Amino acid sequence: MSKLADLQKVLKQFPWGRIEADGSFNVQLALAMRDLLGDGLQFGWWSTVSSPDDYITHLDERSGWRLPPSQTPWLTFAPDRPAPPYPPKFAHNWTSYYAWRGLPMDSPAVLLLHWPLSIYRLLFLVGLAEVPEKRRSLVVHWIEPTHGLDFLPIFGELALLLPNTDIELILFSKEAHDLGQKSPSSLLYIYTAPPTSGGSTIRIRAASTPSWEPSKKSISSHSASSSSSSSSSSSAPSSAPHALISLNGSLSSHSHRALVHATSRALNIPLAATHLAQLGHDEDILELPELLRPFVTEPKLGRLFGAVGVRRIVDFLSAGAGKGWLEKKVEKKGGEGEEGEGEGMGEEEERAGEEGAVELNPFTRPGTNPPFTHFLPCAPNAFTCVFTKGEARY
């Protein structure tokens, strides 16, 4: 099945999913038909102009979603709107997720929910989405968030998806940094799920710097911090991340992306990202050797990670980093036969968690964008890639 057909299949799960003559989905029309298209607070979290400064106090769910109660993915629960079943159990597709969440398929909430669900998908691919027996701490660095600052409360969804966990989602971008500077504290949002849903707490905070870069403290403390669990309710941020993520191709344009890749590889920290198009990931993969080589050839950069870290980068380069991934993908594709609809999904799911595997994100925003001058199927958060599998440590 082609990538375009795969993306259209995601849209076809929804009764309002209309495919235009050019194969795209007119999201503006879908929102306008529900009176959700426009600018300003009166359009809640659907406002087409990103203006997080307007949200010093977050909108409540009713004002933010502006959907009928039955179509709203509530985070505050009541007898007439119960929490979803615990523990979270659903197949990785929107139909199954909506069923677990108690949402009808005519709800357009997916057009925003793909942001937190894409984060969940990336954490799943690197082995950090299992339900822990003991309470754990999970620190995630979100690199270059360009969307979501004006609807942070929807990321409370992660507290339902990752039970028994203290989640710290730390945002690294100029926009997030500016918002943090205007906020009374770096803590931008906090939500705690009910005890019956695992009682997780998510804290979203702005990083102290606009660009991501590792501190000596975070490097030296990574092993100790990531191997310990915590049930502390402190709002103080942890220093070492358990995972690095980026959404919608933002990692490709991050000013310190070479340092992100090198740190991830040297310290064995999981790094995963989404992109609008498969080609975007492929180009990033091809550039990996060029990005990583200076950390081996320049002593000053090499000393940042020590001998063990540099050795990991050397081993990765020696194994044919980047280009080798793409060659492996071509070999696998060449050996595959024709598949019927729904067949082969087990293998695809297994590949999705491999380093360098570029696969369709089942939690992408439904519907493709209008085609560019050269037709390539693309959609927000459409494709995932694990750049460093790392080690899932709590």
Provide structural commentary:
The structure is a single chain. This protein has 394 residues and is α/β, with parallel strands linked by helices. It has helices spanning 3-11, 27-32, 61-65, 94-101, 110-125, 157-161, 174-182, 216-226, 257-267, 278-292, 294-297, 299-302, 306-318, 323-334, 345-352, and strands spanning 136-143, 165-172, 187-192, 201-206, 243-246, 271-275, 358-360, 383-388. The chain is globular, with a radius of gyration of 21 Å.
In short:
This protein is an alpha/beta fold and 394 residues long.
For the structure shown, list the relevant keywords.
single chain, 394 residues, alpha/beta, eight-stranded mixed beta sheet, 15 helices, globular
* Amino- and carboxy-terminal Cα gap: 38 Å
Helix-residue proportion: 25-40%
Low-confidence residue ranges: 223-237, 336-345
Compute the average pLDDT: 87
What is the domain total for the residues?
A: 1
The H/E string reads HHHHHEHEHEEHEHEHHHHHHEE
Using only CA atoms, what is the Rg?
A: 21 Å
Q: Main sheet, how many strands, which sense, barrel?
A: 8 strands, mixed
Beta strands, count: 8
Region (Disordered): 212-239, 331-354
Organism: Botryobasidium botryosum (strain FD-172 SS1)
Protein name: Mitochondrial splicing suppressor 51-like C-terminal domain-containing protein
Biased composition (Acidic residues): 337-352
Question: What's the topology here?
Answer:
Blueprint: H1 3-11, H2 27-32, H3 61-65, H4 94-101, H5 110-125, E1 136-143, H6 157-161, E2 165-172, H7 174-182, E3 187-192, E4 201-206, H8 216-226, E5 243-246, H9 257-267, E6 271-275, H10 278-292, H11 294-297, H12 299-302, H13 306-318, H14 323-334, H15 345-352, E7 358-360, E8 383-388
Helix pairs in contact: 9-13
